[in-house]
């Protein structure tokens, strides 16, 4: 398995999107890497989960979104919140992919204009949860990240973090409780959502 | 992390609500799996390549001697700019068209950023 990529040194997990965007515009490669690490899962999930694209199509859309982000950052430059802008860019890239596919397949009509709003909203919630995980700091951020985001087993997480397996289980339990508490404080508790 | 539900929890409204909330949380945590690492690597490399390429295009626009060098030995100019001398880029440098804007458009059209 590839070595997990953490946020580059000097850019902690709490750096705001605006700080990262400003860094990208200033030519800071680390800021770009941090922005990509933060949102790669979301961009990919918009394509694969919300629009139901296959793995290679989702990869293609992901690359397209990266190019659009780069091209659009100067124009965006913090005029609004980053996440809604990223959502719009990702949705647009998916639609364009589907239109292109339809043209190539010479199918009649074009993809529906209505976006899969419910699925996209679910992904936004998942992004909120991920941000809350980042805010927990280490070791919770690392433990939850490796177990849930990277899909490692508890034994693999233990090996990676060089701690006993029992510690991982205990940390997961403790960190999930902290996470839920934090989400409740922010009004983002899963129990309060439908 | 087990899916098995204790009989007490199953019959206890408070416990069941708590369990459902945690299950919802776990679902959300699993909703955004990390994409393949190669994609992250490619996206990071893209930024570096793109900036290097744009810097080279800017320098080419204002430096006739560099233009001549690029036509004569495009691979070397690309390497010196920190870029891999792939055949499409070599071809574009040999025949840069009408100015930097044209070159940028052709690079984008050939999808050479990634």
Polypeptide structure, described:
The complex is a heterodimer of chains A (194) and B (114). Helix content of chain A is 70%, strand content 0%. Chain A has 194 residues and is an all-alpha fold. Chain A is globular, with a radius of gyration of 18 Å. The model of chain A is unreliable at 1-5 (pLDDT under 50). Chain B has seven helices and no strands. The interface between A and B is large, with 48 and 33 residues.
Task: Please tell me the overall pLDDT of chain A.
Answer: 84
Helices and strands of chain B, in order, run as HHHHHHH
Radius of gyration of chain B: 27 Å
User: In angstroms, what is the radius of gyration of chain A?
Assistant: 18 Å
The most extensive interface between chains reads: A-B, 48 and 33 residues
Give the number of DSSP strands of chain A.
0
Which series of helices and strands of chain A comes N to C?
HHHHHHHH
Helix content of chain B: over 70%
* Helix count, DSSP H or I runs of 4 or more residues of chain A: 8
Class computed from helices, strands and strand pairing of chain A: mainly alpha
Separation of the first and last Cα atoms of chain B: 40 Å
Tell the overall outline of chain A.
Answer: globular
Estimate what percentage of residues of chain A fall within beta strands: under 5%
Helicity level of chain A? 55-70%
């Amino acid at each position: 398995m590839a070595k997990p990529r953490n946020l580059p040194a000097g850019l902690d997990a709490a750096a705001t999107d605006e700080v990262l965007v400003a860094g990208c515009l200033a030519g800071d490669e680390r800021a770009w890497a941090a922005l990509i690490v933060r949102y790669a899962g979301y961009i990919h999930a918009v394509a694969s989960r919300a629009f139901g694209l296959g793995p290679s199509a989702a990869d293609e859309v992901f690359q397209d979104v990266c190019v659009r982000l780069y091209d659009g950052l100067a124009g965006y430059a913090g005029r609004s919140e980053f996440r809604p802008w990223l959502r719009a860019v990702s949705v647009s890239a998916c639609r364009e992919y589907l239109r292109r596919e339809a043209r190539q397949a010479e199918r009649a009509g074009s993809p529906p204009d209505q976006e899969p709003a419910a699925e996209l909203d679910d992904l936004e919630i998942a992004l909120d949860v991920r941000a809350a995980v980042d805010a927990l700091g280490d070791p919770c951020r690392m433990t939850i990240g490796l177990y849930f985001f990277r899909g490692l087993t508890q034994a693999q997480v233990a090996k990676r973090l060089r701690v006993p397996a029992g510690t991982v289980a205990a940390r997961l339990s403790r960190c999930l409780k902290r996470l839920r508490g934090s989400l409740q404080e922010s009004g983002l508790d899963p129990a309060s959502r439908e | 992390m087990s899916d098995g539900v204790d009989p007490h929890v199953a019959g206890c409204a408070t416990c069941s609500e708590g369990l459902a909330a945690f299950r919802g949380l776990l679902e959300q945590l699993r909703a955004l799996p990390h994409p393949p690492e190669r994609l992250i690597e490619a996206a990071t490399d893209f930024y570096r390549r793109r900036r290097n390429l744009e810097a080279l295009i800017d320098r080419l626009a204002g430096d006739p001697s560099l233009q001549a060098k690029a036509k004569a030995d495009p691979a070397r100019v690309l390497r010196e700019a920190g870029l891999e001398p792939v055949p499409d880029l070599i071809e574009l440098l040999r025949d840069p068209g009408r100015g930097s804007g044209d070159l940028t458009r052709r690079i984008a059209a050939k999808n050479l950023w990634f």
